[in-house]
Every structure is written in structure tokens, then in C-alpha cells.
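User: I'm writing a short report section on ligand binding and want a predicted complex to refer to. Could you take this sequence and magnesium ion and write out the structure as C-alpha cells? A short remark afterwards would be nice.
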Amino acid sequence: MPKFQGSIFDVDGVLVDSPHQKAWRESLRELMESDWRGIRDRTTWSPDAFTTLVYQQYVSGKPRASGARAALDYFHVPDADQRVAEYAQHKQEMVVRLIQAGDFTAYPDALRFVIATKDAGMLIADASSSKNAALFLRQIRLDTFAQEHGISSPTLRPGLTLLDYFDADVSGRDFAHGKPDPEIFLAAAHELGVEPRRAIVIEDASAGVQAAKAGGMAAIGVARADDAGLLAAAGADLVVTTLDDVDTTAMSEGRLARRQALCRVTMPSRRHWAADEAQSKDGRSAYGTITRGTGEWRARLTATEPTMR
Ligand SMILES: [Mg+2]
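Assistant: Sure. The C-alpha cells for the complex follow:
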């Protein structure tokens, strides 16, 4: 029996670059500049203080009310109990407006990974705390994406949306406990008919990685916001900056590992590599990030010692 039989995907930040962060940030700004003007000086909030790192560390991945509460507490907003509902409502109205305006994109590496995972025979589920997840997923056409990226797969068919592609959809349901409680992921595994220890969760938020581990599942952390350290500290079994770096062959053999880079460069040179290495935030992935150039030359590189021909 293969070790991994199911993959469970968070949505915001893993599959789509969604406007949640923008909506949390801008809706708090609007409140602080209007109805909440009177308490602004009693908080630590300022227009620039709601950074991506604050979002990733305190808000991302949580259900709406918990996310609102966490942000208000972070900025020491007084009477937070009485303000949570107003902030959450304001944010929700803004995010729906942004989604309907098409203010989001699907991550191509995530779509490639989802297709590869399904092609490997695994069952897949989406499991976002967000009530808006289906709004995104049904707008993403997998058949069009595959066509544009030269991907052929027996699991694709004309007209297929990402929402259709999932074997189970537990996003946006009301659970007694939000992430970092494992309840949503356990429900997803149950609906897939997969034991938790045979499931992999793909998450971009610390709270989500913690939820996966609390549920006895493997976790891949996707560090899209320069927050690899946070995800590793939360217990992720593998942290990558792009899902293209996950070795899907190893995964189907029951191991979570980074792909050994099969790179294409036009003019291989030490200088070329050194430039990429210097840009890399994570030395271990330095050689996995070289993607520029055209396909005139190929070399198999290792993470620690690149070989050149
Ligand atoms: Mg997320």
C-alpha cells in the first residue's frame, strides 16, 4: 500500500494568490481612518504596520473571526471583543468585491503539482477555512491552464474547473475549531477515505502546518512570503518556495524530498550560478531555483555540489 494516498490543499496562498491579505489590511485602515478614528492613538496600528509577516504569523489560515481577533490583539486595539464582528464583516465585504473584480491569480506551480499528484493516483481535497474558496476554485479552468502550459494528463477533460477536480471539498464549512486545530484536515481525510497518516497537507500558514501535524499528517510548507523559518518552526516536514521543487516521484514512493534540480541554462557559468545562489534565501534550494535560459543545455545538479560539464 503506498504510504501517501491523499493530498489536502489549503487554498489561499497555496493554490491562489488571493486578496485576503489586502482585504484584512485595507479594511482595518478604512476603519482606523473613519469610525475607529477616536481609538487609533490608543493602538500600535499605523498604515505601514500591517506587514506581510504580521499577516502570515497572526492572521493567515484562521477562520474569519479568529483572524480578526488576532489582528486586533496584535495592534492592541481596545475593546476588541466589541469590534471583532465589525472588522470581520468589513473585511468580508471587501474581499468579495476584490474577488468579483478578478483580483486574484492561480499559482502555476500549484496547478502543476495538483495535476501531478492526481496523475500519481492520489486522492485530493481542498480544505480552506475561507468561505470564499469555492468562488476562486470554480473560476480556475484546468483544461485551459494545461493547454497553455503544454501539460497532457489522463485526468483532465474539457471544461474542467479546479473545483471539479477535487475529490472532496471541505472548504468554508463551519467546524467547532479552526486551524491550528486539525478538525478541518481530519474531515478532509475522512471524506477522501484516507487515514490521516497517509495524507499530506499542503499549507502556506503556520497555523495550517500546526493543524496538519496535530492531526498526525505529513505537511509541506509553501513559503511564498519569505517565511520558510516560520513554517519549519511550525513542524513542516518539507518547506519549499515553489511546489515545483517537491520531488513528486519520491512522494509517490512515500518520501517528502526536494527535487534534485534538472536545470536548463543557455550559457552555464560559475558566475551565472553564483548570482542565483546569492539571490536565494535558502542555501539548500540555491541550485533548484535556476530556471532562466532556454533548453540548449542540461545538467543534473545536486543541492550541495553542482557538477558542470
Ligand atoms: Mg493559506
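A remark for your report: The first helix runs from residue 20 to 32. The longest strand covers residues 199-203.
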